[in-house]
Known about the structure:
This protein is mainly alpha-helical and about 500 residues long. It folds into two domains: about 10-245, no CATH class; about 250-470, Hypothetical protein af1432. It has 21 helices and no strands. It has helices at about 10-35, 40-75, 75-80, 85-105, 115-120, 125-145, 150, 155-175, 180-205, 215-245, 250-255, 260-270, 270-290, 295-305, 330-350, 355-365, 375-385, 400-420, 425-440, 450-470, 485-494. The model is unreliable at about 150-155 (pLDDT under 50).
Amino acid sequence: MKEIRIPGAAHWRGILALAGGYLLLILYALLLIVLNYAGGLRTYFAEQGSGFLSMGAYILLLFFIIYYYYYFEDRDFLVRGKELALIYTLIFVSVVACTLVGRYFSLYARPFALLGFLCLFLFNRRQAIVINFVFSMLLFVIDAYTSGFEAQGSDISGYASLLICFASGTLAIFVAGGVKTRGGMLITSVVLSLITAVMGFLVELPSTDLSDWIFYVAVFGYRIMGCMIAAVLALFVLPLFEVIFNRLTVFRLRELTSASAPMLQRLRVEAPGTFNHSLIVAQLAESCALAIGENAELARAAAYYHDVGKLKQPECFTENQTDYNVHDELTPELSADIIRSHAKDGYDLLMAAHLPREIADVAREHHGTLPIKYFYDKAMRLSGGDANIKDYSYLGPKPSTRIAAIIMIADASEAAARAIRDRSPENVERIVRSIIEERMDLDQFSECSITMRELSIIRRTLVEALSGVHHHRVKYPAIRFNRARQAVKEEKEE
């Protein structure tokens, strides 16, 4: 894996995000101390001032664990500006939610799974597990040094909180991994609540009288309440984080690919040929992504938007033309410039509309640095072979992700398959293989981590899908029925 050098500015942005999150959490811990020791604040600091300093040191250490996890495991994460700020904000929101619910309801009603839900949808499973572990330790430290344990009346309560917090968050991460709808989130929280309620019962079992059945019923009920609160809060704040930090979640991807999405509505009205092409490419890209284990939802969304740059001049693209072709009146140089500009125009449109960068990057990368063959050939014929291929090539960059590579191949394959008459599997296979090999020869996949095995899987998937999409139909006889003819025929039969 190539080493990523973190620029000085990006490094300091990460440090500032850490410092801001740390200061915010320390101030909140101080507020908790004020609330818990309203009548004896001076006594608290006189007797436990060193404990407060210890809490500050532990919190700082835990924050640095998150920072250095990304520094050593995923350094490009630190370069992306607001990522660390998002993590520390999620931790702060989760700490506030847990402490307030614990203070005014019960320790067992805390929404421990809240951070697990949020991190799973905003990042990925591996990152969510690491952040949840740090959060569990962080909440334990804050409880210990702001007297959260004593407020519950049991010394074991703090350790029960630590265990249940870590287990609830981790279980939430795994149980909610397949959730695709907001309703599914609520159902998941019910399942999770039953599991964690049993865990809470078992944790308290050694230290509580078995005859105190009311206590165990209360623990069970509070754990169900805690998981439901976590799910509801996650559904409430998730859209805020999606918008403020421009993050992709499965819920937002589904909203972006709905028929009511503004950009897609505009594409359907202003460039119907491009819209229909994008729908087919989206189906192909989704199938390919599933086949190689990529994010199929993201592949489908990126394919829907990959050609939105054509909205700038829709009449200049073949799929939106009827009988008149504007390029017949233009020079090859100008035509090539119009065609290749749609990649950059798409990126600009999507970023201006505040769509996620992952989708905008695909719009800019899906043609890489490929030559625009038609106009290059036309220029060669008009100039007697004196044409610079760079003047007739896309400006790039090359695909930087496997999803961008999938859409590059699917886009060209769909257009090529549509252009041929004989769409037998053999012909489609030959075309798709040629498209992939050409892009490999032109080094278009050098910036992404796609493998030869994955390219083979993509080729087979596209052949199967295109053979189904562009299938032959039976030729219907030229007979036209109407009600009068049908009535006469029925009378004769009678």
